């Protein structure tokens, strides 16, 4: 994929192309932004642009041998380092250091892409720092992360930060419908639920019977004050040990209360995600304090879900607290 094919990141792509055209290429870049917005794709597009045999306006031609090798993952001068299990280990960085000072095999630049760079161990960070302090010639490091706050200042200070922005829901809708013409009719809603991440949109759409899940959940939320406890608990039983499904449900609940807050404070229908339930949102009698408290509970639930907690029990407790609020 070339720079021109990357949607919704005009500013980031413009900065990268200008650095190439002006021959002011940094020895290390930090690509930051939420997951699923094109950071890794842009890193590979940059690798193509730097090594293209027939570059076009600061980008790769996509047709030369170098571009095709990078696209297929076979270029000897472009290396992607990813977490080995839950972290990037010092052994991976040591192996990199043993090779990085060699001349390029066939390209103009060696390009080292460290995906999920925040998952480096302390030892790996320290080992990488030694390379960044005295970077080898014609070698570009690209650190990719959605959690830059977890990187040491010593690493951050040696990288040029390129910020990638959340994608507009219209772009997500366009990309999803292009990739999957059989996507749901109400894809616009799920595009908004993705909160700017194409990866998140794909995960949401792949989460089983998502439309039925959302319909059942919103029926419960709109009637929760009058609904029986047994009905709520019976429905929650469906999600026994389904951590991924419960995470999606919590995010859907979060969007519902977000919509309630937006409507009650702005009366602006254009900002609503669950616009197909607009009448229910308008009729909801919850006050702002109750909505704020519900959002706090949901935030805590999403955090707790990352620990060793029973997902169905967590959902039980959350819905019962919302009901009794």
TrEMBL record:
Instruction: Identify a single GO molecular function assigned to this protein.
Output: DNA-directed DNA polymerase activity
Cite the EC number.
2.7.7.7
Keyword field contains Nucleotide-binding: no
Top enzyme class: transferase
Q: Which reaction is catalysed here? A: DNA(n) + a 2'-deoxyribonucleoside 5'-triphosphate = DNA(n+1) + diphosphate
Q: Which UniProt keywords apply?
A: DNA replication, DNA-directed DNA polymerase, Nucleotidyltransferase, Transferase
Stored Pfam families = DNA_pol3_delta2, DNApol3-delta_C
Q: Where is the AAA+ ATPase domain?
A: 25-177
One cellular component term from this protein's GO annotations in UniProt: DNA polymerase III complex
Which Gene Ontology BP annotations are present? DNA-templated DNA replication
Q: Which SUPFAM superfamilies match?
A: P-loop containing nucleoside triphosphate hydrolases, post-AAA+ oligomerization domain-like
Q: Which NCBIfam families would you find in this protein's record?
A: holB (TIGR00678)
State the name under which the record lists this protein.
DNA polymerase III subunit delta'
Please report the organism this UniProt entry assigns to the protein.
Desulfonispora thiosulfatigenes DSM 11270
